[in-house]
Amino acid sequence: MIKSTKPFSRSLRTLTHVPRWSIVRLIQRQSVMEHQGLVAIYADQIADIIGWDGDRRSLLMAALSHDWTEVETGDMPGPFKKSVVDGGKLDDFEREVYERRFGGEPRITDDPMVHYILKTADMLEAVLFLVSERRLGNHGVTGVLLTSYALLVRTLDNYTLEQRTRVLVAIHEALRDEWRGQDGIPNRDLESQGYRLQDILKGLEG
Asked: Element (H or E) spanning 119, and its range?
């Protein structure tokens, strides 16, 4: 969560142009700001699912601002960041970016559940994005999708068994929806009138 002395910073809009998945071939494109918005929504929904009664504003602002420093660093691949980047130097650099770009510094909440929920929401958004890529035919994301799903499940280790079960049920439903779902506004009367997708495809193949 950011206490800012520079409201409406231009850098916020810049984040709508900073891409995620910098070393992954994609069909779709996703910006850091798009990712953060979805993470905030998912975090709020996870809090509802597990019955968390903590400070929602702190949770939502943490979700909305957790990648702001990527306005200068870009979206670094996780394995590289963990293995090569000096954590202490990165923390110092990110604090300097917050101050210079946004006029403040991140507020660290004392509630560990904010961190746990945020990590789950963060990985869930990544997994759902990758599922949508795979559904569009991008087989190249299969490995990173499997890795991301494993990391998503691991974020639930600090939940109670009941909370973990509830979240997993919701996650699996979301995965099915992302895989099978259709965009647009379907006309449910068409099939009853004899319009079926398999007939259209058969005609195209003929």
From this structure: helix 112-135
